[in-house]
Target: NAD-dependent dehydratase
Amino acid sequence: MQTVLGSNGQIGQEIAKELYKNYTKDIRLVSRKPHKIHDTDEVVPADLMKYEDTLKAIEGSDVVYFAVGLPADSEMWEKRFPVMMENVIKACAETHSKLAFFDNTYMYEKNANVQTESSPFVPVGRKSKARAKMAEMLLTAMKKGKIEALIGRAPEFYGPDLTQSITNSLVFNRVKADKKAIIPISASVLRTLIWTPDASRALALLGNTPDAFGQTWHLPTDKSVTYKKLIEITKEVTGKNIKYTVLPMWAFKIGSLFNGQVKELMELLPRYKYNNIFNSDKFKKRFPEFKVTTYKEGIQQVFKK
Model:
């Protein structure tokens, strides 16, 4: 039995599909109101804020994938994520289930030019500190031998369909709507984006690779790229004459006074001033057969009719 926590979210859905396709038909989907993806799926409604629910959701699992997402709400992250992590660690330890944790890079230093698995945590901002706390809780449990686990860490998303990311929202979705694309802070610094299906495929692969446990892995990405280059690729793919504007920090600050979503975005925006090179060489060397989706291939799927 392989269990996906957060199965209604995009990453959870993609993990479940990858597991079914390549690893097992014995899949359990867990969320507050889970929905089957495949006829053979087991669905278990659970509130991971409650230990009893968490234990029930995890019991009988060989591998558990923690892919729970929450809205971009700092207070919610602070109150819920650490409690969920504590409950999941405890339940996995009690049931001897392995854990694969889908993590992000918010805890890394904002101007760390190259990010590797050994980069120190320098969280700045409420959401960053909440994610750092979760990762530290799990790393401590792993070090003490309480749990067999791995961390799969991903940089900023871009993806198909209704992917909720800065790049999808400000660039691709606006291009689809024949609007001017918006680039945050700078069009010329390097960014590293991960294609969401690649992230999910990679985490499922790690979860089914016994010697991957006990480690942190950067999930595989294409090379780093500037937003200017992304626009050029999008022009090539769509055939559109795409116009864009670079929105400076002061404009976001004004917007944050009137828009709660922009306010929640503010702690992440300073990262867009610096090169952000996410190094996934460790994964690529261990799994050389893994096919990483190029930006052109990904953007072709974003705009596929």
Observations:
- The longest strand covers residues 98-103.
- The chain has eleven helices and 15 strands.
- The longest helix spans residues 74-95.
